[in-house]
Amino acid sequence: MKVLVINAGSSSLKYQLYDMRDESVLASGRVERIGMDSSIVTHEPVDKPEVRNVSEILDHVTAVKRVIDMLTNPEFGAISHLNEIEAVGHRVVHGGEAFSSSVLVTQEVKLEIRRLFDLAPLHNPAHMMGISAVETNLPDVPQAVVFDTAFHQTMPNTSYLYPIPTVLYRRHKIRRYGFHGTSHSYVSAQAANYLQKPLESIKMITCHIGNGASCAAILDGKSFDTSMGMTPLEGLMMGTRSGDIDPAIVPFVMNKEELTLNEVNSMLNKHSGMLAISGISSDMREVTEAMVDGDKNAKLAFDMYAYRVKKYIGAYAAAMNGVDTIVFTAGVGENSVALRKAICEGISFLGIELDDARNEQRRKDCREITKEGSRVKVLVVPTNEELLIARDTYNLVKQSRTS
Ligand code: AMP
């Protein structure tokens, strides 16, 4: 079965076509600047050069049509006819409390995703546009949705409730949901597989640290706690997001600086984090380079980033009454030798013995970076959210055919 994975944003759409017989990627690409007259489609076939096309793409229906045109192109396409696409899987950021696993798209599911627009106003409406666009272009193809929040629906109420008036939870569903669930789920399963132990038997902390960043405590094979909350702003310091701050700062700053709600929201989401502290960049590579060149603010940003990851690891080790395995993933977690070292050396009391040579290896596979015999094992596990979406979609469609 060939499965098309789609991640639709408001003005962009990323895609990957999988052959599920061996889970190989046949082609991938992205459509950018949807809604503008110079939209760009970048198509990356396997073993053939990248193709770029600039044209007017005013909506998601046209964007999906262009994707299908690329995939079926006789010269650089990956399939000869669109009916080879047997299923489509979508990334959906917010599944609220309604979805604790991936599901096939039905009228009811679409209604529920719409009900959640309030909780993810920047994401869920765009995902719905992607789903409708596929319906228009491939009306007979089953679709599935895979939610960023679903994996964390196993959190106990001690983890997911905020200590604020409970009427706010009842009326508006204000609670912690957590995000990056697809990644935490994927890397925790990969790590267990690497260790050749059942996931249920490992107290694990997964650190998805990239531009956005979150940690998850995984107990009995399930998400027990995670650092992002009702929105992806809570928790760790990120590229441009503040992470945890005293909530009283919001009204205080609004008053002192005469900021509107939108402005303060933008400050915390887009102008904070590493960018604000370093004054240089939100990008860990650039911050690290500046730090190595002696820039004090870059060093402070790096140290604060590492410090906050350390604090969450410590908190989750306490929450689970121990930790056996720590996993690093995403752009920073998979690539930053310096940051992994700074974090691990600062929490050696947990029983972590970092192996510098292993940490410094630049490999793309799942691997251990602690010494043989280290009580807590630290792994680097490349994440692959698209593959998990393809797998879930494949399994749901296969099940629906047999039932
Ligand atoms: P992501 O959001 O997962 O794509 O991660 C993006 C982040 O990963 C950016 O801050 C990048 O600077 C960082 N990153 C990617 N490659 C490296 C690298 N080799 N060393 C340090 N940071 C990296």
UniProtKB/TrEMBL annotation:
<comment type="function">
    <text>Catalyzes the formation of acetyl phosphate from acetate and ATP. Can also catalyze the reverse reaction.</text>
</comment>
<dbReference type="InterPro" id="IPR000890">
    <property type="entry name" value="Aliphatic_acid_kin_short-chain"/>
</dbReference>
<feature type="binding site">
    <location>
        <position position="91"/>
    </location>
    <ligand>
        <name>substrate</name>
    </ligand>
</feature>
<dbReference type="GO" id="GO:0006083">
    <property type="term" value="P:acetate metabolic process"/>
</dbReference>
<dbReference type="GO" id="GO:0006085">
    <property type="term" value="P:acetyl-CoA biosynthetic process"/>
</dbReference>
<feature type="binding site">
    <location>
        <position position="14"/>
    </location>
    <ligand>
        <name>ATP</name>
    </ligand>
</feature>
<feature type="active site" description="Proton donor/acceptor">
    <location>
        <position position="148"/>
    </location>
</feature>
<dbReference type="Pfam" id="PF00871">
    <property type="entry name" value="Acetate_kinase"/>
</dbReference>
<dbReference type="InterPro" id="IPR023865">
    <property type="entry name" value="Aliphatic_acid_kinase_CS"/>
</dbReference>
<keyword id="KW-0067">ATP-binding</keyword>
<keyword id="KW-0479">Metal-binding</keyword>
<comment type="similarity">
    <text>Belongs to the acetokinase family.</text>
</comment>
<keyword id="KW-0963">Cytoplasm</keyword>
<keyword id="KW-0808">Transferase</keyword>
<feature type="binding site">
    <location>
        <begin position="208"/>
        <end position="212"/>
    </location>
    <ligand>
        <name>ATP</name>
    </ligand>
</feature>
<feature type="binding site">
    <location>
        <begin position="283"/>
        <end position="285"/>
    </location>
    <ligand>
        <name>ATP</name>
    </ligand>
</feature>
<comment type="pathway">
    <text>Metabolic intermediate biosynthesis; acetyl-CoA biosynthesis; acetyl-CoA from acetate: step 1/2.</text>
</comment>
<feature type="site" description="Transition state stabilizer">
    <location>
        <position position="241"/>
    </location>
</feature>
<dbReference type="InterPro" id="IPR043129">
    <property type="entry name" value="ATPase_NBD"/>
</dbReference>
<keyword id="KW-0460">Magnesium</keyword>
<dbReference type="GO" id="GO:0005524">
    <property type="term" value="F:ATP binding"/>
</dbReference>
<keyword id="KW-0547">Nucleotide-binding</keyword>
<dbReference type="GO" id="GO:0008776">
    <property type="term" value="F:acetate kinase activity"/>
</dbReference>
<feature type="binding site">
    <location>
        <position position="7"/>
    </location>
    <ligand>
        <name>Mg(2+)</name>
    </ligand>
</feature>
<feature type="site" description="Transition state stabilizer">
    <location>
        <position position="180"/>
    </location>
</feature>
<comment type="subunit">
    <text>Homodimer.</text>
</comment>
<feature type="binding site">
    <location>
        <begin position="331"/>
        <end position="335"/>
    </location>
    <ligand>
        <name>ATP</name>
    </ligand>
</feature>
<protein>
    <recommendedName>
        <fullName>Acetate kinase</fullName>
        <ecNumber>2.7.2.1</ecNumber>
    </recommendedName>
</protein>
<dbReference type="InterPro" id="IPR004372">
    <property type="entry name" value="Ac/propionate_kinase"/>
</dbReference>
<keyword id="KW-0418">Kinase</keyword>
<feature type="binding site">
    <location>
        <position position="385"/>
    </location>
    <ligand>
        <name>Mg(2+)</name>
    </ligand>
</feature>
<dbReference type="GO" id="GO:0005737">
    <property type="term" value="C:cytoplasm"/>
</dbReference>
<dbReference type="GO" id="GO:0000287">
    <property type="term" value="F:magnesium ion binding"/>
</dbReference>
